[in-house]
Amino acid sequence: MGGISHGRNEAAFIQGVCAIVSKGNWRTLSIPHVSDRFTTSNVHQILLQLSADTALSWSFFKWAQSLPHYHHSLPTNFTMVHLLTRSRRFQEARNLLQKFAFKGFLSSPTVLSSLLSGHGDQDSNSQILSWLVFIYSRSNKTQDAIQILELMKARGLRLDPHACSALLSALAKARLTATAWNVYDDIVRMGVVANVHILNVMIHVCFKSGDTEKAEKLVSEMDGKVVRPDLFTYNTLISLYCKNGMHYEALAVQERMGKEGIHPDIVTYNSLIYGFCKEGRMREASRLFREIKGAAPNQVTYTTLIDGYCRVNDLDEGLRLREEMEAKGMYPGVATYNAIIRKLCEEGKMRAVNDLLNEMDERRVQPDNVTCNTLINAYCKRGDMDFAWKLRNKMLESGLVLDQFTYKALIHGSCKVQELDEAKEVLLDMLDAGFAPNYSTCSWLVDSYCSLNNVEAVLSIPDEIAHRGLSVDKSLYRALIRRLCKRGLVDFAQKAFNKMLEKGLLGDSLVYASLAYAYLSTGKRIAACEILNEMVKKQLMITAKIYKTLCASLANDSGILDLLWSHAIERGLIARNVYKLLQEAKLSSQNDTLNVSSPF
C-alpha cells in the first residue's frame, strides 16, 4: 500500500497494483495520486504479471481503458489479445483486435515482428495473424494482408483456411488474378490443405481471368482430394464456360450436377440463359427459360432475356417480357431500362426513350453510367452535340464520374460535326482522367483532319498533349501511325514514327508491320524491306495477336497483306502459332473460291 501511495519505486508500484487487483480492491486504484501514475509501460508490465489469470488481466485492461488520461498502446493491446487467445476467448480477442487493427502501422513487418518477439506461443501467434489477414482482406487492404502472410511464412506460422479464403476472395474481387495464384501457391507450400471454400475461390479467380484450363485443373484437384464440388463450384464453372461461349461444356456441367444430386438454382439457369443470349441464340435461351424447374425466374432472368432480344433486333419480344415481368410483381431495374433504351436509341425512337426516362424518374430508378453513355452516344451519332453536352453536364451534377465510354462518344460526335478543337480538348480531358485512347478514338481524329487536308495537325497532337503536362506513351503514337498507314499516308506515318523515336519511345512489332504494309501498298518495296530488316535486328516477331489485329483492320487489302506475310516469312519474323492461322486463312480462301465458281 505504501509503495502505491508514495511510489518512488516503479517495480514496487507494479507489484502493489497486482496485489490490489488480485484482492479486488478497485477503489484503491481510483485514488487520483494512484490512477495518475498509470502509463502504457507499467500497464503492459502489470498485464504480463497477471497473465496467469486471464480473467483478472482482462478486467484490469478494461478498467485502465476507462481512465480519462490513459490510452492503451499497441503493445498493451496486442498482449491482451494474446492472453485472450491463449485462453481460447476467441470472440473477445477478435473484437479487441478489430478495434486497433488499423492503428499504429500494425501491418508493418517491423512493427509486427517487434510485437511478436515478446510472445513465443506459435499457436496463438498463428491464430492472431490469421485474424489480421482476415480483417485486412475484408477491408480490401490486400497489400497489408499479403505483408502479414509473408511474415507468417518467414516465422513458420500456420494460416487459417478462413483467412486464406478471405484473402483470395479480396484479390479476385480486385481482379488481381496473378497475385491470387501466387498467394494460393504460397499457402499450399505453407501446409494449408485447400478445402472446398478455397478451391471455389480459385475457380472464381479463373472466372475473373476467363481461364477455363486452370478451372478444369482445380476441379480435377477436387476429385483427386475427394473434395466434393458444391453448387457454387458448378455455378461458377457454368458462368465461366458461358462467358467464353463454351455452351456444350456448360451443359455438360449441368448434366454432372444432376448425376451428383445437386439441383440447379436460378443462378445456374441465369448463367446458361446469359450464355445463349450473348451468342444471339434466343431460341435456346427461350426454351431453357420455359424449362426452369425448382427455381423461380427473377429480375436478372428477365433482364438477361430482354437484353438478348433487343440485341437480335426483336424489341417487341423484349417489351412483351417486360410486361410479363411486371405482371409477376418484378419491376425493372436500371439494367432492364438500359437494355430497352439502347435499342430504342439505335432505332432513333428518342420520344419513346424520353417516356422511359420519365418513367424511371417516377419510379425513382436512378440512371447510371450506362444509361447516360447510351444517351450521349445516341445524340452524338445524330450530330446533336448541344444535347450531348447537356447530358454530360447532368451526369456530373448527379455525382456520376465520366468514364472512357463517355469521352469516346464525345470525341466521335465532335469529329462527326467537324468540331475538331472540341474533340481534341475532350481527348486531353480523357488522358488527364487516366484513360488511354484506343485505335478507334485516334482513327476518328486522323480521318477528320485528313478530310480537311490538315494532316500536319495529326502530327502535332502528341506535342499538344505533352505541352499540357500529360504523359505521351507508345500507344498513342502506335494508333496514329496505324491509321495514317491504313490511309496510305506513309510519309506522314514515318514522320510520326521518327518523332516517337526522338522521344525515346521504341517501336514495337505492330508499328513496324504497319509501316511495312503501308510502304508495300504504295509500291515502295525497298522501304518496306528496310523496315522488316529492322524488325530482324531488333528481334521483333509478328505474333498471333498482331496477325489478327492487322487482318481485322486491313481486311480489304488481302493482296498486300499476303505480300507482307511472304516477306515476313522469308525473314523468320512469323511466330509459330501464326503459321497455322495462315494455313487456315488459305484454306478458307480456297473454299470461298470454290463456292463462288460452283454452279449449284
Automatic annotation (TrEMBL):
Residue ranges annotated for the Pentatricopeptide repeat-containing protein-mitochondrial domain, each copy included: 134-218
Keyword annotations: Repeat
InterPro entries noted in UniProt: PPR_rpt (IPR002885), TPR-like_helical_dom_sf (IPR011990), TPR_mt (IPR057027)
Signal peptide annotation: none
Keyword Repeat: yes
Presence of the UniProt keyword Cell inner membrane in the record: no
Ranges for the PPR repeats: 160-194, 195-229, 230-264, 265-295, 298-332, 333-367, 368-402, 403-437, 473-507
GO molecular function terms listed in the Swiss-Prot or TrEMBL record: mRNA binding
PROSITE patterns: PPR
Domain of life of the native organism: Eukaryota
The protein, known as: PPR repeat
Provenance organism: Musa troglodytarum (fe'i banana)
